[in-house]
Each structure stands twice: as C-alpha cells, then as structure tokens.
From TrEMBL:
It is found in: Membrane. The chain crosses the membrane at residues 12-32, 52-80, 92-114, 120-140, 152-170, 201-223. PANTHER family: ABC TRANSPORTER EXPRESSED IN TRACHEA, ISOFORM A, ABC TRANSPORTER G FAMILY MEMBER 28. This is ABC-2 type transporter transmembrane domain-containing protein. GO terms for cellular component: plasma membrane. It is a multi-pass membrane protein. InterPro entries: ABC2_TM (IPR013525), ABCG_transporters (IPR050352). One of its GO terms (molecular function) is ABC-type transporter activity. Residues 5-165 form the ABC-2 type transporter transmembrane domain.
Amino acid sequence: MDAANVQSNAGCIFFTVMFTMFTAMMPTILTFPMEMSVFVREHLNYWYSLKAFYFAKTIADLPFQIVFSGVYVIIVYFMTSQPMELDRILKFAAVNILTALVAQSLGLLIGAAMKIETGVYLGPVTTIPVVLFSGFFINFDAVPEYLSWLTYVSYIRYGFEGAMLSVYGYDREKLKCSIDFCHYRKPSQFLKYMSMNDANFWVDIGALTVFFIGIRIISYLVLRFKLKMMQ
C-alpha cells in the first residue's frame, strides 16, 4: 500500500463498514413486518411460542449474515491491496461481520416496533448521528465535550475503529512512498491523526457484541409487548 493514499484507503474502509451496515439493516426493516403478521396469526393459534420463533429467527439469520458479509468484506480486502497477513484479514472480516449483525438487529427492532413505511424512513434517519460520530467525518478529539458521549453509543464507531486497527495497527511496518514526502508513512502516525492510537481492537469487538445482545433483547421485549397488546 502506498503511504500517499492512506486517507483514500481510510475512506474505502469506512464505506465498506457502511455498506455492510446498510445491506444488513434495510432488508430486515422491509421483510420483518411481513413475517410478523404471519407469526402473530400462528402464535394466536397456539402453534408455537414467541421464544421459539425469536430463537429460530436469530439462529437462522446468523449464517446468512456471517457468510455473505464475510465474502463481500474479504473480496474488498484483497481488491484494495490491504496487508496480506492472516490475522489482519480475520480481524477485518470479524469486525465487519459483527457490525452487520448489530445493524441487522437494529433493523429487526425497527421492523418489530413500526410499520414498513415508518421503518424505511426511520432506519436511515437514525443512522445519520451514528455515522456522524463514527470518527471518520469528525475526529474524536474535535468533538465538543457535551457531545462526546454520542461517540460511545455509535456502533459504527467501533466497527470503523476496529477495521482501521486491523489494517494499520499492531506495529505495522512503514509504508512505501511514491511521492517526495509522505506524512503518514508510519501507520501509527495515521492512527494518531485519526484519534485511534490508544484504541483497542478487542474493546471494539466487545462493544459490538454488547450492542448485538442488547438490541436483540430489546427487540424481544418489544415483540412481547406488542403481542400482549393484541391479545
């Protein structure tokens, strides 16, 4: 990778995370309300419980998101000439897959709580502040103190930060420079510019896992509440 193109490469990494996020969220917002109508009818006929439906839905979603998100991310990784090191490839894929799972869970929550028309509008709208405080458009150091808490509730922040660390972190050697001077020839210097020099990859993985589990639990509670309202 050329040190002259690190900022362009950071943009590529960010929009890879964004793509996995949107492709996981939006189909769920569109399809789950239709699945919900079938489930409600069958549940009221005492065919199966909410727990059985929700557990089956969660287990069925996992392979789809893991395989398709993983395939896309790995193809992008190789096409953009990222470092060919197995641990970096696996970390890059893992953090993007987890981001997709969180986004899919958020789409499930929106789809469970609202009608399709409202969900299709609300999904992208609620994503705007999450993206804005992800660390790509505004460095964390530049965020005012009274808004800094928003960076910690942005799951895109953890996805993007983890992806950047997998590519530029872990004492990566100096990059080649095709021009007279490259300010970010040292990957650690670029991470410092992005306010990610003190970040920890496993903290990002842990945060995304907490988001995934937390949103899934909230979605279950929303479904349970809606069923009680219908009965």
